[in-house]
Every structure is written in structure tokens, then in C-alpha cells.
């Protein structure tokens, strides 16, 4: 009875080129995702923060200037009235 059982490993065909590309692409994608998650979790160095802070203050100044200079032509000028007390 023991002679009838076949315990040899099953025959697995060699992976094709497309299967290899798919396998390595999935591995590369998983490693890339781990790097992206670690970049979000780990803190940023102090030197990078000071550079970005100075850039943000400069960009906010540029945005504020055009808003003040833009006149509104559609509104009629309001009449000035004096309030009596």
C-alpha cells in the first residue's frame, strides 16, 4: 500500500516572460508604496522646513497683492449719508 502512494513534488512549468514581468512589477510597486508610506510617517528634517516656510510666506504675499488692486466695476458708488443722533 505504501508503494502505491506518489509523494513526488508536482510538476510546475517554468514562468513565462510575461509572468516574470508581472511578478517583478508587483514587487517593485509594493516596495514603492512602502517608501511612500514611510515618507509620510517619518518626520521631515529641520532644514527643509525652514526653506518651505520662507517659500510659503513669499507666495502668500504675491497672492494678496492682486486682490487689493482689482477694482470692482459692476457696483455703483454708495451715497454718503450722515447719521443724526
Automatic annotation (TrEMBL):
Topological category with respect to the lipid bilayer: Single-pass membrane protein
Basic and acidic residues composition-biased segments: 48-64
Region (Disordered): 47-85
Subcellular location: Membrane
Alphabetized UniProt keyword annotations: Membrane, Transmembrane, Transmembrane helix
InterPro entries: UPF0239
Family indicated by similarity: Belongs to the UPF0239 family.
Name assigned to this protein: Mannosidase beta like
Organism for this UniProt entry: Pelusios castaneus (West African mud turtle)
Amino acid at each position: 500500500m505504501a508503494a502505491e502512494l506518489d509523494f513526488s513534488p508536482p510538476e510546475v512549468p517554468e514562468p513565462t516572460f510575461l509572468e516574470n514581468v508581472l511578478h517583478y512589477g508587483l514587487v517593485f510597486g509594493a516596495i514603492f508604496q512602502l517608501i511612500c508610506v514611510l515618507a509620510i510617517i517619518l518626520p521631515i528634517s529641520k532644514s527643509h522646513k525652514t526653506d518651505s516656510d520662507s517659500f510659503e510666506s513669499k507666495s502668500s504675499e504675491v497672492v494678496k497683492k492682486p486682490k487689493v488692486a482689482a477694482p470692482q466695476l459692476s457696483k455703483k458708488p454708495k451715497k454718503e449719508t450722515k447719521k443724526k443722533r
